[in-house]
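User: structure tokens for this one?
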Amino acid sequence: MKRVSESYKTEEHEKSGRPASDHAAFAQVARGYYTPVVALFTATLIISNICATKGVQYFADHSVRLGPLEILPITTDGAWFLFPLAYIIGDVLSEVYGFRAARRAIYYGFAILLVTVLCFTIAIGLPAASFYENQDAFRTVIGTTPQLVAAGLIGYFVGEMLNSATLVLIKERTKEKHLWARLIGSTVIGEFGDTLIFCSIAATAIGIDSWEQFVNYVIVGFIWKTLAEIIVLPITYRVIAFLKKHEPSYEPREVPALRA
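Assistant:
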């Protein structure tokens, strides 16, 4: 039996072209900071898309209008404080690792969001135990509608792609100079695309029922996310500088992935 096992092991290694070993085989974990950055990026997307299902209003007792535009109350969603972080991390990925790596992270996030929605749907559909009294609350908190799922997925995908592509295109012209310009410029393009798409699809699902509220929702979301990028620029600068310094593979190179 031992001879058969050794023969099989030798034959397998000959097929793979690798020398036989008496130790168990393991693949090496990729070094660098790309993996933890992508993990944080994906976690932010999942959490923010869940929080976004809640409609939020500030100054609900006030009514201020500027022509057809509703200034107060301010209408937004429950992810207003978190979602800008996804774009900040997207900027870091694009600036340090390039469009191809950022695009791969966006694909990962998209796939995991789909899996999240599927798991929530299955969990809600499972028969509740006789002693479990929170089925309705459970469904309310993590349940979502196809409308919100479509809004989150399409808005996220288009916005992040626009954000990443814009940043890399600007960097091709400015090289390592004017980091602030590409961070803000890419955010303006990406956030506008994301906010407009998400709000257009999700507005009625979170309770927005008038044109004035919709315009307020889009403008407030866009302005806030852009301002958030500007406010945390010093932190973004430090994170990018740290990664560029500690990633041994960081070097100037062409960006053929934008044309792929």
